[in-house]
Amino acid sequence: MSAGTIATAAPSVTPQMAGDWPNPRAAWYAVFVLSLSLLINFLDRGILTLLVPAIKADLGLSDTQVGMIIGFAFVTFYLFLGLPIARHVDRGNRRNIISFGLLLWSGMTALCAAARGFAGLFMFRIGVGVGEACTGPATFSMLADLFPPEKLPRAIAVLNFGYTAGNGLALIIGGTVIDLLANSPDIHVPLFGSLRVWQAAFLVVGLPGLLVSLLMMTVPEPKRRHADAQMPSIREVGRFLIGNGNVYGPLIGGIGLGTILAFGVGAWGPTFYIRTFGWTPGQVGLVQGLSWLVLAPIGAMIGSGWAERMARAGRDDANLRVTIYGLLIAMPFFVLFPLMPTGWLAALMNATGLFATALVLGPENAAIQVVTPNRMRGQITAVMLFAFNIIGVGLGPVVIALFTDHLFHNEAQLGLAIFTASAILSPLAVISLALGLKPYARAVAAARQR
Fold first, then answer.
1. In whole angstroms, what is the distance from residue 287 CA to residue 331 CA?
2. Per DSSP, what are the bridge partners of residue 195?
3. Which residues lie closer than 8 Å to 151 by C-beta, 6 or more apart?
4. Least-confidence region, from 67-71, 101-105, 274-278
């Protein structure tokens, strides 16, 4: 089966159907609320990275155990029920699925405050992953029914403001609060009892998501395009992916490898500055948080605009090409930042790499949606998110921790562990994506004929 098979995977689009898109105000309101849900998601993830030293000290954990809690515990659920949820996304009410996921993961984040050891915290983090597994496929499926393909990169770039703001606010607010409460006595909370600062942080971060879950219910469920198409079986989706392996294989490999590095560095970056340069959580949070709040949104909008201009100029591979360019620009900065002699030089290099990586946020996600038939979008997005989470989020924090514990045998060598991971994974991610350029361009051209 060639890439051209993508064109026959869904019914053809009539001119009336092609122009029958939702009201722009309603579409952008949906993006706003979905962005808030993403903000809550990464607020939780971002603050956890600042809590690593306190959690290690209180629970007596190794770097590898912390890596398991940050990464593998979060993605364990995807091994079992990610695809069944995605099948429901392809036929059910996506708005309700996202609202339920928000409710579940926020509640489980708050319950992390009750953890008293590795096993408890690991299990609560699995619960967080259960909730968040409900949102990814449903979010991107909704966006693809809210915006025409040529506007999708920009919509996804705006959506990712929630991603960048969540990380930035988590670092700034979390770091400041941790510094202020560092020498405070335990905090007594009804039902939870006496809590350490890191436990109280989980409770505070989990509560806003409950409100956003209610707000999500005000977003109308968009009309599905090709709603008359029969829902494909899992076997049919599998045959489609295998038949178009020259398109999806490089995407899965490149995104997965890049995510290992991104989430590995994101998870251990604050601890690197604390261990190597003696920075406080407040210093780390302010410097890295501002990078997320200021540079990442600018990079995301530049990247989406770049891809749109290339597409208007006739480049069918525009989304994938901009993704490759962004990773190439970021590569030297991410490889070299942990070798810098001062914290400020390291932060400057890291911030520049973050800006370059943000270029890919819109094009990378739009690349998948543009070539994926509507009736398979939830399930194929789930496969991509499976790679994103299992390979990237699950392994990223663990890989760097394993290098620290078992290759360098010294947690003070965290910088060398980050350098080693960056030097290996960055080139491999770019090579994988580059192998898919020509097949991807053919697939985009075929998708226009639906």
1. 21
2. 187
3. none
4. 67-71
Residue 28 CA to residue 222 CA, distance in Å, equals 12
Quickly count: other Cβ atoms within 10 Å of residue 234's Cβ. Answer: 12
| C-alpha to C-alpha distance for 71 and 432, rounded to whole angstroms | 23
Beta carbons within 8 Å of 136's beta carbon, 6+ residues apart:
381, 382, 385
Residue 227 CA to residue 10 CA, distance in Å, equals 10
Residues contacting residue 120 through CB under 8 Å, at least 6 positions apart: 114
Partners of 188 in beta bridges = 194
**DSSP per-residue codes, 288-325:** HHHIIIIIHHHHHHHHHHHHHHHHHTT-TTHHHHHHHH
What pTM did the predictor assign? 0.72
> How many angstroms separate the CA atoms of 353 and 269, rounded?
13
Give bridge partners of residue 193 from the DSSP assignment.
Answer: 189
Alpha helices in 181-295 (DSSP H): 197-206, 208-216, 234-243, 245-277, 281-290
Can you state the angle between helices 208-216 and 24-50, rounded to 10 degrees?
Answer: 160
Residue type (1 letter), 361: L
Whole-number Å distance between alpha carbons of 50 and 177: 11
**Alpha helices (H) in 280-413, listed in sequence order:** 281-290, 296-312, 318-336, 343-358, 361-370, 377-386, 394-402
Residue 92's SS3 state is coil
Residue 115 in this model has a pLDDT that exceeds 70: yes
Cα–Cα dist 146/140, whole Å: 10
Measured CA to CA, the distance from residue 281 to residue 294 in angstroms comes to 19
7: pLDDT confidence band, cut at 50, 70 and 90? very low
- At what angle are helices 234-243 and 245-277 packed, to 10 degrees? 90
Is residue 8 pLDDT above 60, yes or no?
no
* Element (DSSP H or E) covering residue 341: none
Give dist(CA 91, CA 117) in Å, integer: 40
| Helix or strand (DSSP H, E) at 130 | helix 118-132
Q: How many CB atoms lie within 10 A of CB 79?
A: 12
The most distant pair of C-alpha atoms in the chain lies apart, rounded to whole Å, by 66
* Per-residue pLDDT at 30: 92
194 by DSSP, 3-state: which? strand
> Exposed/middle/buried for 222, CB within 10 Å: 0-12, 13-18, 19+?
buried
Domains of the chain, first to last: 13-222+234-447 (1.20.1250.20)
The two structure tokens encoding residue 132: 């968040």
* 205: nearest Cα among 134, 111, 290: 111
User: Which two three-digit tokens encode residue 382?
Assistant: 């789930």
Would you mind telling me the total number of residues written for the chain in this entry? 450
